[in-house]
């Protein structure tokens, strides 16, 4: 070898997460871990955990320097208006703002070299019209160090969860939801409607029923409250590889985002 970068011998990112936290999160589906910063004093990666009631974005902050961050670091977390955050950290950090706002400020305690701190960000939506190009901005500032800015993508799959209902309930709700979006997909990869068993769960939606060459799906918005904001989808396989989709909800932006999610799953 020679001349190569010295190999890292300590756990960092998700591998550096506290064992108790790893155990807590072990049973839930997760996205891929993505590295956001590997230069300088902090190594930062993130991973989405799809909990039953919310998506949690874990941001792993590993001290890659040769010193202890004796005064820890601060993390400023922000998202779009209409969405809100609930944050926590392991080891515990001070929250400088109230929860349930679209911005949060955490102040984390001392972080020893080669150790990892995990920021947990729950993302919720209480205004469906704000669904669209959503993200979470995080600015991590090690005390006496260089700040690192990162953007965490948030997609519609993060903001919905399956909701079970009967065909009758679906029919009743369908009539009441005002904003319909309709689209035709010409080159669908779905040969058979039974594929929707897998597509529904991949899209965080519930498969209500398959009826002949049609199927109906239901999801609710992750509102963080008892507020049930629904989106219903109707998909139909036509001749060959053509499909027709309809989505209905209370807001056009919500209908369009969910329809796009299902359509993309059918053209993958």
**Main beta-sheet annotation:** 6 strands, antiparallel
Low-confidence segments, given as residue ranges, are none
Structural category: alpha+beta
Oligomer state equals: single chain
Q: What distance separates the N and C termini?
A: 41 Å
How many H/I helical runs? Answer: 5
Overall average residue pLDDT: 93
Summarize it:
It contains five helices and 16 strands. With 268 residues, it is of the alpha+beta class.
Descriptive tags:
268 residues; alpha+beta; 5 helices; 16% helix; 41% strand
Overview of the structural elements:
It is elongated and about 65 Å long. The protein is built from 5 helices and 16 strands. The model has no long low-confidence stretch (mean pLDDT 93). It has helices at 19-25, 156-159, 167-176, 196-202, 252-266, and strands at 34-37, 42-50, 55-63, 73-79, 83-90, 94-95, 103-108, 116-125, 134-142, 148-154, 160-162, 179-185, 206-211, 214-221, 230-237, 243-249. The two termini are 41 Å apart. By secondary structure, the chain is an alpha+beta fold. Helix content is 16%, strand content 41%.
